[in-house]
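Quick one - inputs below.
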Amino acid sequence: MNLSSALAPATLEQAQEMGLRADEFDKIIEILGRTPNFTEMCVYSVMWSEHCSYKNSIKWLKTLPKDGPHMLVKAGEENAGLVDIGDGLGCAFKIESHNHPSAIEPYQGAATGVGGINRDIFTMGARPIAQLNSLRFGKLDNARTKWLLGGVVKGIGDYGNAFGIPMVGGEVYFDDSYQANPLVNAMSVGLVKTGNIISSKAKGVGNPVFIVGSATGKDGIKGASFASKDITEESAKDLPSVQVGDPFQEKLLLEATLELAETDTIAGMQDMGAAGITCSTSEMSAGGNVGMDIHLDLVPTRQDGMLPFEILLSESQERMLIVVKKGQEETVQRIFEKWDLHAVKIGEVTEGPEVRYFMNGTLVGEIPAKSLVLGGGAPVYEREYKEPAYYKEAKKFSIDQVNEPADYVVVARQLVAHHNICSKKWVYEQYDSMVGTVNMSTNKPSDAAVVNVKGTNKALAMSVDCNGRYVNADPEVGTMIAVSEAARNIVCSGGEPSAITNCLNFGNPYNPEVYWQFVGAIKGMGAACKKFQTPVTGGNVSFYNQTVNEDGSAKPVFPTPTIGMIGVLKDKSLQTTLDFKYKGDLIYLLGNSYDDINSSEYLYSYHGVKNSPAPHFNLDEEFKLQECMKGLIRNNYISAAHDVSDGGLFVSLVEMGLPNSLGFDIVTDGDIRKDAFLFGESQSRIVVTVVEDYEDEFLDFVAESQVTVMLLGHVTKGRMTVDEENFGFIEDMRHLYEESIAMEMAK
Amino acid sequence: MKFGVVVFPGSNCDEDLVYTLSEVLHQDVVKLWHKDTDLQGVDFVFIPGGFSYGDYLRSGAIARFSPIMSEVVRHADKGGYVMGICNGFQILTEAKLLPGALLHNESRKFICKNVFLKPESTSTIVTSGLEPRAYKVPIAHGEGNYYGPKELIKELNDNDQILFRYCNEAGEVSEESNPNGSLDNIAGVSNKKKNVFGMMPHPERCSDFELGNTDGREIFESILSKVMA
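Output:
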C-alpha cells in the first residue's frame, strides 16, 4: 500500500474485508455521491463498526431512562453523564469494556482499558478519584485462565498504580462460558467543579485544532473493528490491533489537561480512544455542527512514512484532540511544555459540514462529519430476536429435584472457599487502593466502596455488580437484580443511589437468541432504573463475546450487563459498615425467605445443576426493603449491614464475622428448607446487627416499613453455630476465604 | 517550620502529603517543582511516593538527576531535614542520601495493604515520639524489599538508624510479618546524621480521621514535636 493506492477508489471486497456490509458500502456511495477512496472507506469502516456506531443496540438503548433528580448533564450530551452532588461539584463516571484485546494480550489489553476509561473522565475536566473493575474468566484450574488472570490483574495494576487513582472496588467471576473470551470492564469516577466542565463539541469556525499527548504510531490500527468481531482461533493474528499503554504519559496528560481546565482557553476537547483521530475529529465536528480541516502530515508520529489511513485509524494511547479558542494557543502550548508533552496544531474548525483530511497539501478524504456518527448517518438496525429453548427448559427445575446435603458443614466450607465467593485479596492487593487518601472503606468495610469528597461533608458510594448466571437464566429479571444489588450495596453503606453506567457484554447480535438476551436485559435495566430513579448516564456495548469453535458453532458468554452505580452519602456520618462489632449484638434478617435455590452457586457448583430459573425477585419488595434500610441508617438503629448475595446467608454471616474475628449463633426458619435458607440466593435480603438497647425502636421501625424481619441469633466470640450444630470457629474460615485464589494460582 | 513537597512528573502521593501536612496537621507547605532550583526557604523537604519519570529504568533512578534534587542534596548536606516515602525512599537511596537499596518484592508482585510497624530507633525525630507498640500503616509498592550488605545492616543497627521494622499486630517481628522480603524486616532507615529519613509505608495514608486509622499521624506528630522543641 502506498499513497496513490490509498487514494484509489475502494472496492466492495476491500470494504467487506474491513467489516462493512455490501448495503453499507452502497450507502456510503449514496452519501458521498461517489465511490469513496480507500482512506475514506477505512474511516467509514471504523466509525460504522459496532464499537463506534452502536448500530445494533442503539434502538433499545434509547428506551433507557436518561434523566433523574440528580443529573447535571444527561447521557449522550457529553462523553459521560454528570451527576450533581452539590457543593458546586459534578460527578463524572463511566464503565467500558476491553474484552477482545485482553483475550489475546491480557496485560496490554487490560492496561489500556484502564487508560481509556480514565481519559473519558478527565477529558471532561474531571479529576478521577476512584476506579473499579469487573472481570470474568473461565474456570481458574485452567492454565490459560491463570495466564489471563495474572496478565489482566498486572496490566490493571501497573497502569492504575502508576496513574495514581485508587482502585476501590470490583468483582471477579469464573465460569466456563468465559473460557475463551474473558471480560475486562473498567470504571472510573471523577469530580469536576461545575464551572470547569469541558465540552466535547467543536465550536468556533477558525479555531485551531491541536493534537496533544503521545505521538501517533501504528499500534491499535483498526482496534474498533477488531472489537466488533468474534474471537476465533485466528484472533491472535490480530495482535497489532492491541494498543500499548504508557501510564506515565497518561499521568502527565491528566495534570496538563486539568491545568488547562482552569484556564479559559478551550472550546472543546475529546480523548482519542477507538478509531483515534477519525473518531475524535468527526464526533467533535458533528457535535458542534461544524467541519474541520486536518493536516495529517503535522501529526507527530513514532515512525516515518505512515500512510494517511494509518494515522487516521491509529489507536495509540494517551492522546487528546483540543479545539483551542483562537488567540489562546500560546497558553495551551506553555502548559503542555511544562508537562513535557506534545501540543501541535494540526488543523482548524471550518463551516463544514465536511471533515477534510490532508496529507502534505493533498486532500486525501472529504466526508460529511454527521454521516459518520451515531445519531447522524451511521446505520441503525433492528435485529430479530427469539426466545431460546433453554429458557423454558430452566423453568422446569424444582427444588424437590435435589436432596438436602448430608453434611451442611462440608457445603458451607466449599462455598466459602469457592472462587466466585471467596475473598479476591490475591487480586485487589496488587492494586493501589489507598492513593489519594480518599478510600474510606480500607479500615471500614461495607457493601459498596465509600470514597471521601474532601472539603465537603459528603462521600460517594460506588459499586459494580452483575451476576451473569442470573441474567442468562432470565435476562430481564437477572438485569433487574444487577441494578438492585448495586443499589442495595450503596444503601447498605449509607448512600442514596444516584445514577448508573453500564457495560453490556453479550455474544453475537446477529444470533437471535443472543439478541433476545440483550433485549430482555435492557427491559429489566430500564424497569429497575426507573424504580430507583437512577438514570443511565452512559456506558458501552460489547458484542461478539463468544467462542467460535473449529466446527463453526459459537458459544456466547453469559449475558453480562455490568452495572456501575454511584450514590451519595449526604453526610459522612451515615457510613455504615458490614462487620460484626461486639459479642452479644443481635443478628436480624430483613426481607422474605423462600424455598429457593435457583441459580445459586450452591445449586450450580455443589449439585451441578447448570440450568435453573433466576432466583426469586420482586422489584417492589426490593424497593421497600431499601427504603426501610435507609431509614434504619438515618435513625442509627443498626450497627452493621450486609446484603445476602452470592453464596447465600451463611456466606454473608462469615463475611460479617471475619473482619473482627467474631462468630455467630443462629437458628434457621422451620418453614424453609434449610439448604435454601442458608445457601439460597433469593434476593432482597439484608443481615443487620442491632445493639440490644435499640431493639424495640428497630423492630417498631421495621414493622412500620412493612418489611419482614426475623431474629437469627447473636454475635459470638468466635464460634459458628447453626440450629445448635457446631460449624467450627470463624478463624477456621479465614484461610479458606482469603487464600483460596492464591492457592489455586500457586498450583 | 515550613515544609516542602517535591513534585516530579509521575509523583502521585504529592497531593496526599500536601493535604496531610496542611489540612490535617495545619502546617505551612509549598510544592517544589522538579525543574526548579529554589527550595523556597523550607526547613523540611518531603519526597513523595509515585512513579517519578515513569520509573521505567529503575525506581527513583532518573529522579535523582533532576534540578531540584541537587538542591535537596545540598540542603541535606547542610543538615536540613529530608524524608522520602515509598518512591521518595527509593529516590533517596539512588541519590546516596540513604544507605541500602530497594529491590523487587520477593513475591514479584505489587502489594497494597495495611501492615504493622514497630518503631526501632529512639534517636530520630521520626520515631522518638512514638510508643513501643505496633503501628498500622499501609504499604503500596512493587520494589520495597530493603537490601544492603551484611556490614551495612550491622552498621544501621549499631548506629540506631533503623526507623521501623515490619511486625505483626502484637508487635512481634517475624518472617510472616515481612511483606516484601526486606532484610531484617527493615521498613525505614535514616542516614548516620539522622537528618535524612526514608520509609516504604505511607503514614500520610493513615492520618486523616475520616479514613478510620490515624496511626500515621503520630509519626508526623513525633516529627513536629521534636523539631519544634
